[in-house]
Amino acid sequence: MAKQATRGMLWTSLGALLCRGLGFANNVVLTHLMGKAEYGKANAAFTIATSVTNFSNPGFTGELIRRRERFEEAATLAVSFSGSIVVAFSLVVATFAGPIMNAFNAEGSTSNLRVALIMVLFGTLLMIADVILCRKIQFGRQALIEFGSTICMVGSSVGLAYTGWGGMAVILGQVVREVSGRSAATVATGLSWLRRPRWDWPLLKQMLSYGIPFWIAGMLNNIATTWDNLFVGKMLGMEMLGAYAAAYSLTYVPVYTITERITTVFYSVIVQFIDDRERRYRAVLRSMSAVLIMMAPVVVLTMFAGPRFVALVFSVKWQTSVAPLVTCLALVGAGLPLQLMPDYYFGALGIRKAVIGIMVVKVVLLFGGLFLFGRTNLESAAWAVSGSFIVTGLLAYSMLYFLDKIPLGALVRVLLPGLVGGALMGGAIYGLRQVLPFGNLLMMLIEIAAGCVVYVGYEFLVHRERVMDIIGAFLGRGRDSE
Predict the structure, then answer these.
(1) pLDDT tens for residues 259-314?
(2) Residue 23 lies in a domain
(3) CA–CA dist 35, 47 (Å, integer)
(4) Into how many domains does the chain fold?
(5) C-alpha distances out from residue 280 to 193, 274, 315, 334, Å
(6) Are 435 and 351 contained in the same domain?
């Protein structure tokens, strides 16, 4: 089962990397077709719309994935209940869209927000398809659907931006992605789960008793991972938000997407043997090791090669503001996996206070840091964001020992391969910079190649068994005893 989880994580990661690569290329093209203010206003509207999505789902997704009895009735009830909330919430937000956007200095973008709410409605009303794919551990099909919907988004957003739709092109691209992806997933899984809507209050109460704490945690997580955009727009203006959002598309968004996909696989598998302490210990340690080994080189390459990449692909008007932010935000990728994996693990165990506590700390650290350091300087705001993720990640990771007694030595050993390998990789790239005076493109390629050789060489020499275990799981071979 642990091998199945690792294999699912690897295939899901590759699919997510491909989709995020397409998404980033799409964003780069869009920055050449519109100004920073237009891009910033679209990002503000998208942030508010995704908040409506998160605030309208009372933690039902995780509850449905782990449910073993009366799934069909529970799924129908979840759609009915969440759908009622999201329709009412969307109507309120659409009615007051003007004042809401004006409050964040996004004047003149009311229509952006109203159109983005279409994405919210589809995402909630067709959410059961993704739940079914997770329950059946069909992550290959899920990745294929996501890839197809990403292609639809790129084509529509670039085409609309080229014809002069401005920031609305960003919003409509996301709407097309959500509608096409959710519709395809629903066609793939069918509607056999759907029952005649019936307000089964005992069942609803049971679902809410599990889901509400995670609903609260989900809302806090949404605030901690997206509202920094609104803070930047409010304090520093839409042009600065545009630059910040572009840097996010290169740093935070890929890391979050990959890590979130991996932890979803982990959650889908571990709930099946959550009562077996030894198996779940092995599963969480093995999964955490795989995540950190994969993410360490991503963080290092983003930090060192990211600014050079920005200079190559962004237009001149974007380069000076985006490049420094890439280095600042790269460290988000170091803290995020350490936070998300324990978050999902405690969710599977039903330790609700831990999940909420992690999110409360994250929100306090994030906005405390932004308020103290980020009100006048965009780079300081980015460093505050990275710092909050690092501290929250280390706190969440340490809670695996304090709350579930996973051996401390084992937790430390899991950190070492990625930490030491990443440090060696960074050192090799830094050393090359001192002796090779090449231009941006050639130097970036040399840095990437040399860094990867050092990292992979170290992992194979020192942690060969662990690396071969991950490769074996990816190819469908290797141990399955866990």
Answers:
(1) 776 777 777 777 777 788 888 888 888 888 888 888 899 899 989 888 888 888 88
(2) no
(3) 19
(4) 2
(5) 30, 6, 49, 24
(6) yes
